[in-house]
Amino acid sequence: MDFGKKIRTVTPPSFGSQPADPQANGYGQPDRGVIESRQESQPVEKGCRRRLLSPMNRQNYFDRRQESPPTMERTMRDIRIAAAQFETHDRQKDYNFSRIENLARRAVAEGAEIVSFHEGSITGYSFIQECTREEIIELAEPVPGGPSTGRLVKLSKQLGVPLLAGLIEIDGDELYNTYVAVAPDGFVSRFRKLHAFVSPHLSWGNEFQVFELCGIRCSTLICYDNNLVENPRIATLLGAEVIFAPHVTCGLESPMPGRGKIDKKLWDNRQRDPVPLRMEFLGPKGRGWLMHWLPTRAYENGVYYIFSNAVGVDHDTIKTGNAMVIDPFGEIIAESHALGDDVVVGLCTPEKIELSGGRRYINARRPDLYAELVKPPADGRQPEVNPGWRMKSEGGRRKAEGGR
Question: Shortest CA distance to 117 belongs to which of 96, 137, 139, 138?
Fold first, then answer.
């Protein structure tokens, strides 16, 4: 089966720099002639391969903010996409991969053509806040080229569908919270979290990406990245029809009414008495909070949102799962209420994108009025990521440091 098209990609300039290619347009893509001249010696790739349509760094976008993005022909078709949740074991890659394999096989049996897992699903996530740099390096892998990416590719080939999962990446001296997409014929793409905060040793990603899986234009935003409305809007303007949103969230300290941690005793006793835990999972500590904002991201942009999350014990918290697929109307078309490992499959159809309010709102935009959105603070302040709960490193805040 021919899932995708020939790869066409241009490496974007580094964070905060000017475009490296004078022939590139303002969206990280070279002019058509430049594409063809650079790619003419490469064979056409078959299978569900990346076509990196629009890599773009922040400065690149800000410099061209008043221009409209290039018009893209819609490629969306009917497709079933799965969102998974499972209880990750910190540092236990073999165990975590066994859960990925089990749930992926189950999703494919239910008709899924793409299967996605949560942030840090291969390595674990929240425990990193207590790790030294040396400990994180020991856990990290190159992407592509590392054993976990290779293992995902092998499973993808066995199942015949693309897979997406999270891990810690090492690239030279830099460490990243990365989400990798693979297909039956190999590595597809990696996305580095734009607003990393769990450890001061993790660098920030610096580009948006839109890539093809099975003919569908996809983008990724990891956890906190989705809290800033600009990020999914930019991904949509770059052509995304589906946004994967891998998370490790809910059950956290918060000043908001009803929110906070979930008692581990409820998790441990869930088989004997599931009702109290289910109330926590569905209330303001879990689903209730997500409903304040998550469907809105899909609705206001007219895209499908694929939300995956950890469930159960995550370091010193209990996560709520709530894996779901949300359509461009902001409606949930597939959702897990399981008190444990689970996967749900949603049928995503193209007509909802064109009929959605979000697409009408995008057409009504007036970029000439939006300069204030991208104006640097007058006092020279750097971006600061505050998750709203106190971590055990740097008090739970991350500020930009150089290009991080």
Answer: 96
User: Residue 187 pairs with which residues in a beta bridge?
Assistant: 182
DSSP string of 3-46?
--------PPPPTTSPPS-TTB-TTS-B-HHHHHHHHTTSPPP-
- The helix/strand/coil state of 381 is coil
What whole-number distance in Å separates Cα of residue 18 and Cα of residue 22? 10
CB neighbourhood size of 94 (10 A): 8
Q: Beta strand 216-220 with 242-246: parallel, antiparallel or unpaired? A: parallel
pLDDT at 397 over 80: no
pLDDT, mean of residues 148-175:
98
- The CATH topology of domain 48-378 is Nitrilase/N-carbamoyl-D-aminoacid amidohydrolase (3.60.110)
Residue 119 contacts residue 166 (beta carbons within 8 Å): yes
Whether pTM > 0.90 for this model: the answer is no
Residue partners of 292: CB distance under 8 A and separation at least 6: none
Share of the chain above pLDDT 70, in %: 78
Question: Residue 238: phi, psi to the nearest 5?
Answer: -80, -5
Instruction: Copy the structure tokens of residue 106.
Output: 């189950």
Which alpha helices (DSSP H) does 269-372 contain, by range? 275-282, 287-290, 294-301, 351-355, 357-363
Q: Which amino acid is at 298?
A: A
Residue ranges of domains in the chain:
48-378
- The DSSP annotation for 227-285 comes to GSTHHHHHHHHTT-SEEEEE---SS---SSTT-SPPPHHHHHTTTT--HHHHHHHHSTT
How far apart, in whole angstroms, are the C-alpha atoms of residue 116 and residue 121? 10
